[in-house]
């Protein structure tokens, strides 16, 4: 039996979209041990994953931290290290552990010297969906293609469900998640009053409570959304829940509404009915994949997708042209 050490992407969005490739690797190595290295932010995503044997939450931080992590992993005798992203610190850690096979993407001579097998996919990465890219990367590094990759939902653990029930209280009977923000990318933000209009319609016609999520940085926009929902059963949890609880909340929602952000990708991966509005994001790379997820994007604009965090034009056209009624009726459609 071999031991594999997989290094999860460090960003939340990419860590979620690595899920299909993880399924491929597990199916290719059904009897081998798979240990997953993840940073503190992304580790909770895979805390209860049935596709790994051990989760290793590790952090970066210089030579002292690297030595401590080497001591922690040194006795495992891994056969293969696999990298979704070419992260030099993790690659050097794998080499220090003397892992015989180190597989990843080729990005310059230094990576070629530290990895034992590489593929050149830098241009391909810009041409296809991120999830599909990770699957192609795994395949070109020797992993057999899987017919089920991309069809199995991201699992919601009982731990996550219990955590969600604790914070929902009286709102647990039926709710829509409205994800605020992202505050650090204002180009992706839709006006709070428009989000509230859609949520108000779902309350009026389906008695769906409104659960607002987001980071601490999104608290101002979340409060603005909540202020537009007077008379609607609303629970503002922006900045109040951890990743595990958020997973449970998403898994139990009748529908999730939000911009192109990690939580919306997670809802999509879970197969939850989801409506996502795109402004600067490229749907080719970051669009939804589930049949229960719909994308709304203004048409006819030459400046989209621009992939910028802030707009340099007088008006925020790509988001201002997203129509409230269209978003509402698409919510109705994905809910069935």
UniProtKB/TrEMBL annotation:
**Gene Ontology CC terms:** cytosol
Molecular function in Gene Ontology? ADP-heptose-lipopolysaccharide heptosyltransferase activity
Under Pfam families, the record lists: Glyco_transf_9
For biological process, the GO terms are: lipopolysaccharide core region biosynthetic process
Any idea which UniProt keywords this protein has? Glycosyltransferase, Transferase
Check the UniProt entry and state the signal peptide residues, or none: none
PANTHER family given in the database record:
LIPOPOLYSACCHARIDE 1,2-N-ACETYLGLUCOSAMINETRANSFERASE-RELATED, TETRAACYLDISACCHARIDE 4'-KINASE-RELATED
Q: What is this protein called?
A: ADP-heptose:LPS heptosyltransferase
Q: Which organism is it from?
A: Desulfurispira natronophila
């Amino acid at each position: 039996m071999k031991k594999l050490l997989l290094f999860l992407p460090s960003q939340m969005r990419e860590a979620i979209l690595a899920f299909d490739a993880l399924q491929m690797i597990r199916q290719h190595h059904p009897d081998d041990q798979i240990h997953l290295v993840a940073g503190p932010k992304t580790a909770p995503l895979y805390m209860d994953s049935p596709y790994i044997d051990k989760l290793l939450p590790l952090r970066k931080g210089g030579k002292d931290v690297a030595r401590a992590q080497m001591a922690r992993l040194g006795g495992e005798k891994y056969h293969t290290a696999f990298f979704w992203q070419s992260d030099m610190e993790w690659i050097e850690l794998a080499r220090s552990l003397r892992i015989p096979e180190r597989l990843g993407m080729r990005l310059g001579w230094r990576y070629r010297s530290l990895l034992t097998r590489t593929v050149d996919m830098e241009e391909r990465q810009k041409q296809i969906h991120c999830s599909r890219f990770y699957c192609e990367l795994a395949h070109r590094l020797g992993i057999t293609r899987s017919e089920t990759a991309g069809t199995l939902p991201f699992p919601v653990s009982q731990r996550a469900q219990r955590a969600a029930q604790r914070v929902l209280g009286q709102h647990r009977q039926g709710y829509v998640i409205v994800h605020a923000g992202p505050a650090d990318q204002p180009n992706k933000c839709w006006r709070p009053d428009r989000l509230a209009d859609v949520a108000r319609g779902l309350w009026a016609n389906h008695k769906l409570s409104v659960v607002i999520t987001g980071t601490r940085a999104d608290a101002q926009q979340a409060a603005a959304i909540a202020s537009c929902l007077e008379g609607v059963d609303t629970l503002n949890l922006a900045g109040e829940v951890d990743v595990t609880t958020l997973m449970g909340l998403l898994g139990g929602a009748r529908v999730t509404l939000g911009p192109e952000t990690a939580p919306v990708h997670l809802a999509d991966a879970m197969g939850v009915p989801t409506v996502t509005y795109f402004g600067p994001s490229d749907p080719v790379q970051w669009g939804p994949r589930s049949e229960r997820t719909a994308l709304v994007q203004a048409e006819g604009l030459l400046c989209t997708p621009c992939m910028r965090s802030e707009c340099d034009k007088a008006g925020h056209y790509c988001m201002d042209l997203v129509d409230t009624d269209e978003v509402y009726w698409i919510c109705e459609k994905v809910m069935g």
